[in-house]
Design a protein that fits this description.
The radius of gyration is 13 Å and the shape is globular. It is built from one helix and eight strands.
């Protein structure tokens, strides 16, 4: 489902230049209707729906593939990566990384 929407978004919205360069590993629908996608390219992309999904922001910080995303509450989102970290992102501050849990093993 997301892949179809993603491809439609790329066709309809040519000005949207923020795309993943490797496979998408996880997606998360936020309570406000936006999506986050995590990829093996180490990035998270914020997608806004305005008749179709449009990429709005690339969220960077992980050193390896992003494997999981979770909305902690209305303010924070957590991401887990193959770099053995969990990052906590503050939605109210344009997804600024607020906290890093390091050395998390499997």
């Amino acid at each position: 489902y997301f892949e179809q929407k993603h491809l439609q978004s790329r066709k309809i919205n040519d000005e949207s230049k923020i795309i993943h360069t490797w496979e998408v590993n996880c997606i998360l629908e936020l309570k406000n209707g936006s999506l986050l996608s995590g990829s093996s390219d180490k990035s998270i992309i914020l997608w806004i729906f305005d008749g179709h999904y449009k990429s709005k922001k690339s969220i960077l910080g992980h050193k390896l593939s992003v494997r999981t995303l979770a909305e902690v509450n209305s303010k924070y989102v957590a991401s887990g990566s193959d770099d053995n970290t969990i990052r906590i992102w503050d939605q109210s501050r344009e997804f600024l990384c607020s906290f890093i849990v390091k050395d998390h093993l499997n």
